[in-house]
Amino acid sequence: MTIDEDHYLKPHPQRSNKKLNWLRAAVLGANDGIVSVAGIVAGVAGATSQSGVILAAGVAGTVAGALSMAVGEYVSVSSQKDTEKALLAEEKQAIANNPDKELKELADLYEQKGLTRDTAERVANELTKKDAYAAHIDVELGIDPDDLTNPWNAALASTLSFTAGAMIPLLSSILSPVAYRIPFTFGAVILALILTGTLSAHVSGAGKVRATARVLIGGILAMVITYGIGRLVGLNAI
Fold first, then answer.
1. In Å, how far are 26, 40, 141, 194, 205 from 212, measured between CA atoms?
2. Interval 145-156 mean pLDDT
3. Which end of the chain, N or C, is surrounded by fewer C-beta atoms within 10 Å?
4. Pairwise CA distance, residues 95 & 97, whole Å
């Protein structure tokens, strides 16, 4: 077997990227929790200094946001899983109904990857003899039928990451002295957003400064705007 053949017969990198995708989703979930609940507690703190009211609003926002994330992720990943199953069933039927056409298609795909026509046909023939279905779904779809996406895992991961992120502004607003509640909360949120922005840039391969700046600006704007609205509402309610 040549080096080129050995390279193309190895599992595709999509498999190893699954962990990165989960990490990216967890970081984004935590970032959503930080910004969402920071906006809530900042807005309520702008209207009142009562810790009980701020705590109730923050907890309600955390629970609602976590459940929303769970439902949204479950629905999204369930749809993705249904699509994967449909593609697998379609490919299995195509191989059963027109094996010669599918064999040619497999050889064409390997040729497009850089193998010579003779080598591509030989690889396609050998893989088809061993397991035509596995060969096709690997090179065409990049799907492992034994490792499909799990909507329950996705929902749980999103819920936990959102809740973890939400705890930062919630606890900092409740545990800090009343006189310093706003600056303490802002400071804690800024540090948390720097961390999530850096992690997000790391897992996505983006520039850390630009990615972190986007996250910071969005989070700060959310807190400033909601605090200002809460302040106006609180003053008008007096």
1. 16, 22, 34, 6, 13
2. 80
3. C
4. 6
